[in-house]
Amino acid sequence: MTTDTTTKERPTTWAGQRDALSRLVWGRVASLQKQYCRPDPTPPAKAALAQLRRAAADDGTWRGVSMDAFTVDMYTHVPVELYPLTGNGKERRFTDDPTKAEIAVRTAMTLYAIHQQSRREPIHGGTRPGTALARLAWGDGNETAVRRRFAALVTADGYPELIHHLRTMVRMLRDQGIAMDYGQLTGDLFTWQYRRSRDGVRLSWSRDFENHIAPRKSDSQGDPTT
């Protein structure tokens, strides 16, 4: 079963909702990862990861995707207390359209399932997205290609385009065994969907990316993350 590390009280600010969503996904991924990365992975964890991978639609949502609704929803639903608020602080009225919170949580969980595929070591950890992507460039001959893909990611204009590029880079992280913080990623994906806040996410990813490439390029002096 999953562990939800959210407050029972409704966040009263947009930043509070973002942070609560980050904690929610952090706990769910940590729980799922613990079950899967043991010497004998539990059958429910293996099944959940497979179903989450199948639920990864190209546009980062879940419209028109065939899935095991119960298992996937157990890992991707958003509690009612985390539904977004309107601009005047009132509760958002429910509609048939997925909320930004639901899209961010589902996207992060399905990307984690892709990232963990065929890896038996934990790949969810305390590495921010921009830092994790910078580590792809540390391999010999990889920097030009990684920079090109990263540039496409941070200049993406729409959410489907963003997730297309992010999914490609997550597969590269998987192949190199590089971990990423899926709680942080959830908060970033939630924030990115608000046009007024999008550039802040791009700047954060770009700063982390450049700050963790530069020391590696100029040095042979030890761990560039320190």
Automatic annotation (TrEMBL):
Pfam family, one: CRISPR_Cse2
Residue ranges of the TM segments: none
Signal peptide start and end residues: none
Superkingdom assignment: Bacteria
Protein name (record): CRISPR system Cascade subunit CasB
Species of provenance: Stackebrandtia albiflava
